[in-house]
Amino acid sequence: MYQQNSDVSPWGQPPDYVLKEAKNTTKFFKCIGSVSQEESGQVFISRRSAYQALTEEEYEARELKKPSVGKEYFSHMDLEDIVNKYPYRKNLPEEDMVKERLTRLALIDFLRGLVEFDPAKRWSPLQASKHPFVTGEPFRCPYEPAPETPRMPCLADLLVFLSKSNADSSVVICDWLWLALDLFDLG
């Protein structure tokens, strides 16, 4: 879906290193500069983005169709403004108002962790499930999730990999492994 304003989304524009690697960047953005310049072994990164969102006209010219523009549900485009400017309940006591503000801060932090553009920095479901917004524990900004143990490939992953291979030897190995799993009731 095409985002018609230059703010791109409530989460802002993805960083250049993410846009550079994304497969559909050219569908929605144009490159207006260099991401970095190398000079005597040092890399200098510009403060301005090397990418700019396409206008509706540019999108239409590239894609040969009119962009489908989504409905705007909020008058604000920034995530913090959307959450913080949402009206409080009427006649809310001051003590509850303070709790609500803290809950909203936790919500913003939680959402930012879920929608992080960089997959390496984005929280896993397990990490997100331990966020104070979910657990109800006191929120201390910002939440730093514990790193997860990297996933180790298991025998089943190896079998899937080998079964997709065209080599005759991998088929034989795969057959033997499946047989071993069946014999020991591990499959």
What do these coordinates show?
InterPro entries: Kinase-like_dom_sf, Ser_Thr_dual-spec_kinase. Keywords: ATP-binding, Kinase, Nucleotide-binding, Serine/threonine-protein kinase, Transferase. One of its GO terms (molecular function) is protein serine/threonine kinase activity. With 187 residues, the protein is mostly helical. It folds into 3 domains: 1-73, no CATH class; 79-135; 152-187, no CATH class. It is built from 9 helices and 4 strands. The chain has helices at 16-21, 25-28, 56-63, 79-84, 94-114, 125-129, 132-135, 155-164, 168-183, and strands spanning 29-31, 36-39, 42-45, 51-53. The strands form 2 sheets. It has a two-stranded antiparallel sheet with strand order 1-4. A two-stranded antiparallel ribbon has the order 2-3. Strand 2 (36-39) and strand 3 form a beta hairpin. The longest helix has 21 residues, at 94-114. The radius of gyration is 24 Å and the shape is flat. The model has no long low-confidence stretch (mean pLDDT 81).
